[in-house]
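User: Sequence for M20/M25/M40 family metallo-hydrolase below. Tokens please.
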Amino acid sequence: MRFGSLPVLVLTPALLLSSPCLAAKAYPEAEKQVLELSRQAIALRSVQGEGNKTPEVAELFRDALIKGGWAANDIEIVPYKDTAYLIASWPGSDPSLKPVVVSAHMDVVEARPEDWERDPFTPVVENGYLYGRGASDTKFDAVLAMEAMMELRRQGFQPRRSLVIAYSGDEETTMDTSKLIAERLKDAKIVLNVDGASGTLSEETGKPLYWSWQGGEKTYIDYKIEITNPGGHSSMPRLDNAIVQMSQVLERIGHYNFKPELNDITRAYWTEAARLEPDAELAAAMKAFVANPADPGALEVLRANPAMVGRIATTCVPTMISGGHAQNALPQGVSANINCRVFPGHSREEIMAELEKVAAEPAAKFSDVTGDDSVMAPASPMDPEFVAAVTKAVKAAWGPVPIIPMQSSGASDSMWYRALGVPSYGASATMIKESEDFAHGLNEREPLLNIRPGITYYLSLYKDLSAK
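Assistant: Structure tokens for M20/M25/M40 family metallo-hydrolase:
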């Protein structure tokens, strides 16, 4: 398969269906609908707040599913505040079996038209890419996974295990609908989270470098630190100046390294990534880290790399600070926010206690201000059945591409399922160059070369996981 010429093409629907650069097997109806439905979804400004059109995205998807063979009573749109979530079931032949869930979200982050080269909510197809807010996070992926299931139904397939589409409506903000869906589907066998690209394309050739499935993610936590003092006139300095105390606390936390860790998923990641890493020094550090997570030489190299440091251990960094009340007065109070991404297996209380010890300042009062937007969740297991199914699906779609397990430093709907004991895996079909990943940023885009292999991937995955 060759992908290098695609970025210079204007990828019209007709060209998309006939391009020799894509997989040999074609699905004309599904491929056409992926592009059209993605355009329609991007045009709906599904952003939290006034004018939120997430419910309209849900209605758009419901109507498409009904045309694709779903019974209206097998689809539910549940309004929630200014948004909504969608659950659509394709009943399996054996109702005693736990369902396979396909997870994504319909909302997007805000985008200001004056900042973009193209209006973010006017989808544009240009030079082989679909542009618009949600193109890569994650309306295109949601549509691709859904249209592939419609194609499977058109082929006359009957799943033994029910297939459930579960799309949340506020993943980018409060995740309230994410929690509600997970609670309703806590009897699922497995969740396939298709939020964002799982594959990486070569910057030079455009060909697939590797594909990764996400089996765990670090937990998002915010801690607030407060230091208060009586204050006073600035002409009479005190030894316990709150700003000075806070600066010393933040310096200690900023230079602190949590204990390096491995679990089954990250061990597999480092092992496989080392084989593919072209930088000899970095590859050697990866191998040494697997052999000994406390290896000082390996840690020096990995901690110096922004892309790697978050994969080694828990990280906590100061992100906001506020204090003082007048230029000529001693500060009466200072506060700071510490944002942590916690390696699975540690509690909020444990991490806060460690930070308090690092701070070494009795006047510093810590509190957990994360709220209900995050939850501690263990990593999903290295399920041989899932690994075999995605390996087969990726090969069918893209050929013999290296496959790497990974643990994300970010957060997704998967954590709500994992917290309830349901295995959830990031397993999107799409591939993208790292330099073209503009999720949450300006001029967000998605390579349309993903459509045909993406359908091939999902057809294989759905068949295998719903058959047993």
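The chain has two domains: 6-217+379-466, 219-368.
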